[in-house]
Design goal:
Mean pLDDT: 95
CATH topology of the largest domain: Rossmann fold
Shape: globular
Largest sheet: 6 strands, parallel
Distance between the termini: 9 Å
CATH class of the largest domain: Alpha Beta
Helix content: 25-40%
Structural class: alpha/beta
CATH architecture of the largest domain: 3-Layer(aba) Sandwich
Number of helices: 13
Strand content: 5-15%
Radius of gyration: 21 Å
Number of domains: 2
Strand order of the largest sheet: 7-6-8-9-10-11
Order of helices and strands: EHEHEHEHEHHHEHEHEHEHEHEH
Low-confidence stretches: none
Length: about 325
């Protein structure tokens, strides 16, 4: 097997035995969390980029690759919003991802668990009440929460993660409503009408891929149908929510909340993101730094799984 030159631009040395596996299949350079200019300067020397969107500062598109000889972009993720897919197709650059690798992704429950953690933390004001203790107060009155088994939970998307989240919610006694036009189900908790879900739900959790059709699926029109004390949970992609619209909605509805692990354009424009700016002064918004899939077990499955796919491709 002709060893290709691989540039790894995501942190992998903490994953047991992964560097050994990568070193077997190519001549590898490791750059932990580099900036765009660092990668641009050397990209012409490499055949493969190995990446992951979490924490990344690198958008893989024309600006980075226009003069390169790159053959493969290998990403340890199901989402591809850190990659200009159309440009890579035009250049005939292979994308290796976990998007359709169900044998690998079915083992990974971490993001669904994160959605549940965000849900329960928000309902019970865990973060804000804990901060208040450190500030010297001991007063529950500001932090009276909601009981989960009294909630209607609306789940948008019933793929791998939506199913897992639904299972957790049912186990804890919540009533679920599911909307997914691509899944045929006759179960009584399914609805064919998204607006019906939005009106009835106390909690709305997003479990769908980003596409042109789904972009800004949560917008002013959809928000206007929701309860004034709704909790919206997003562990999918930030671009699913119109951030201007939800900020206005939260201002108008002081008992509503957003708990999100993602923000829009988090790779290129995270520092100027409106949600992050508003969260600094607004307890209605809780944001975590895209840690949904960041567990020891999930990283092991994902990174080693995509490495095996890369090895198989390079053997051809």
């Amino acid at each position: 097997m002709n060893k290709k030159k691989i540039l790894v631009i995501t942190e992998v040395k903490h994953i047991n035995n992964l560097t050994n596996e990568l070193n077997k299949i190519g001549k590898v350079t490791y750059l932990d969390n580099p900036n765009f200019n660092q990668v641009k300067k050397i990209i012409n020397n490499y055949d493969v980029i190995f990446t992951n969107p979490n924490k990344s500062k690198i958008y893989i598109g024309k600006k980075l690759l226009e003069n390169s000889k790159l053959e493969v972009v290998c990403t340890a993720s199901t989402g591809l919003n850190h990659i200009n897919v159309n440009y890579l197709k035009k250049r005939k650059i292979k994308i290796i991802s976990l998007t359709k690798e169900k044998k690998i992704t079915n083992k990974i429950s971490s993001t669904a668990e994160m959605a549940l953690a965000l849900t329960l933390s928000s309902l019970r004001n865990v973060v804000t009440s804990s901060k208040s203790v450190l500030q010297g107060t001991w007063d529950y009155t500001k932090f009276i929460g909601r009981q989960f088994d009294a909630m209607n939970v609306g789940i948008i998307g019933y793929g791998r993660l939506g199913k897992m989240y639904a299972k957790y919610c049912k186990a804890l006694g919540a009533k679920i409503i599911v909307y997914d036009p691509y899944v045929k189900q006759k179960k009584n908790y399914f609805t064919q009408n998204l607006n019906n879900l939005l009106k009835k739900s106390d909690i709305i959790s997003l479990h769908i891929h980003l596409s042109e059709k789904n972009k800004n699926i949560i917008n002013f029109k959809k928000l206007s149908l929701m309860k004034s004390n709704v909790l919206i949970v997003n562990t999918s992609r930030g671009e699913l929510i119109n951030e201007n619209d939800i900020i206005k909605f939260l201002k108008k509805n002081p008992n509503a909340k957003l708990a999100t692990d993602v923000v829009s354009n988090e790779i290129l424009k995270r520092k100027s993101n409106l949600l992050i700016k508003n969260a600094k002064k607004n307890n209605q918004i809780m944001i975590t730094p895209h840690i949904g899939g960041m567990t020891v077990e999930a990283q092991d499955f994902a990174y080693k799984g995509v490495t095996r796919l890369l090895k198989k491709f390079l053997k051809k």
